[in-house]
């Protein structure tokens, strides 16, 4: 365990303060780690993942004895050291050929991870098409019913979105739509084993269409990965709960009595106080008019 | 006048942007994603690479077209030289990287101000210095408050000693003010540190002192045996172990062993014989030690200095 370091000067203090928890967080960074033995397929995959993640990524070029499913201390250590909350670890063994592990940490503790076998990898270099600009945000498309039903696939969807989404912004340059990552689930095998997951990356070409929306044309960019899910570590409930908390400062305050329907029409509800009937203006009749002096009228003398 | 022909011709020049989907596609424009749960063509996905790639590209094109159509209907902002679409908030729940920051504990002044309803007033950082005819910072480097020369003429108060250096008095007063502020800063820090563990600064000081005392006891060669005992000194376990003599006390040893045996044989209250909790802890710790010893080789390698 690393000890909490103490700043010795203003510069290092600024650096440490920048690492502290924030209300609005910066974009997540990823570490790309290669295991003790790797295959060319895995190396290519890691290289392309790094290219897509740049500049929020740290690429490890040396081998590391690391097995996140057996011992998470390794990734947690790297995560703390590099201040990265995403990791991709690639390794290759006889038992698990071309093994790719994608995962996340929360507060430098392992949150969840998915182990996948890379059955096919066509890299950007293989395809040789033009690549996207560094740091561009991709469009993400998930095809298949299981992304809404299967627990494993829901986690994979969440993890991939987190991995590739890049820096979040409240606006998007419409010229900056550069590439799209599509993830499609394949059909299950004959014995009911889960099918392949096809991850494809295309560059987007927006063409004139005569209307406001452009016509979209795609060209393969790479990487194209055929993945088969192996082991999965789901997040612990309490940790997940901690991780999805929204700070008070950015939580949207609920506006009372204003609602919108599906068509975008706005409805307001007005609450009336209790009406004071005694002050109600009724018809003006002379007989009901109040006297100027509030004294009761004199009774005529009876004698 | 019939313009349908012209429209048709215009349309014919471009490719369509409409895409048909049985179940409407769900979009999350905040993270530029869309989720399509329509049935996929399993035959195409099982087929050989060529057919599959064509199918996947077609599917992706249609999906992208739908997403782009949505993005282009968003309200736009024109800024400098580019057109931006104002994105809505993301609806998908993604975990944070680090926990939500803790709230800072209030200082004594903040608490007081809250009760009294005193609000912070914004004061400009720069002040106009009329003597110099320029703007200068209120505090800090070249600030108006730390000149030491202003005002350069000081009146000697009626009650004061006429030979007292009033400039010196002023310097000392300022020094005192700074020290007082530092003391309060320290106090606030101590109070906030103790708040997490539910201790007052006084209790915390006491605890620190006691732990220091215990440490110092073990630091002498005699393990504090001949140290003068202090008033209210904490009792320390395991420091002064009284051992029975090795020779000449066979009777004592025998009686002790018999006593233990008797307790075991009696077996009335198991807690006195075997502390289950303690035993469990001992087993666990020895197991952990074994495990750590086994993986030591890989562990040390992994945590090498900055190895990547």
Automatic annotation (TrEMBL), chain A:
Cited PROSITE patterns = BRIX (PS50833)
SMART domains with a match to the protein in the record: Brix
Classify the main location. nucleus
- Does this entry carry the keyword Nucleus? yes
Entry superkingdom? Eukaryota
| Record carries keyword Nucleus | yes
Q: Where is this region: Disordered?
A: 272-303
Q: Where in the cell is it found?
A: Nucleus, Nucleolus
Spell out the Basic and acidic residues composition-biased ranges.
290-303
Q: Which GO terms describe its cellular component?
A: nucleolus
Supply the alphabetized keyword list. Answer: Nucleus
Mind telling me which InterPro entries this protein's record contains?
Brix, Rpf2
Q: Which GO terms describe its biological process?
A: maturation of LSU-rRNA from tricistronic rRNA transcript (SSU-rRNA, 5.8S rRNA, LSU-rRNA); ribosomal large subunit assembly
Q: Name one Pfam family in it.
A: Brix
Q: Which residues form the Brix domain?
A: 28-238
Q: Which family does it belong to?
A: Belongs to the RPF2 family.
Protein name (database record):
Ribosome production factor 2 homolog
Automatic annotation (TrEMBL), chain B:
Q: Name one Pfam family in it.
A: RRS1
The coiled-coil regions, if any, are none
Q: Basic and acidic residues composition bias: which ranges? A: 170-194
Keywords on record: Nucleus, Ribosome biogenesis
| Region called Disordered, residue ranges | 170-197, 280-308
The UniProt entry, under InterPro entries, shows: Ribosom_reg (IPR007023)
Principal subcellular localization: nucleus
Q: Name one GO cellular component term.
A: nucleus
Q: Where, per UniProt, does this protein localize?
A: Nucleus
- The answer to keyword Nucleus applying to this record is yes
- Decide whether keyword Ubl conjugation is in the record: no
Briefly state the protein's biological role. Involved in ribosomal large subunit assembly.
Instruction: Please give the family membership noted in the entry.
Output: Belongs to the RRS1 family.
Protein name (record): Ribosome biogenesis regulatory protein
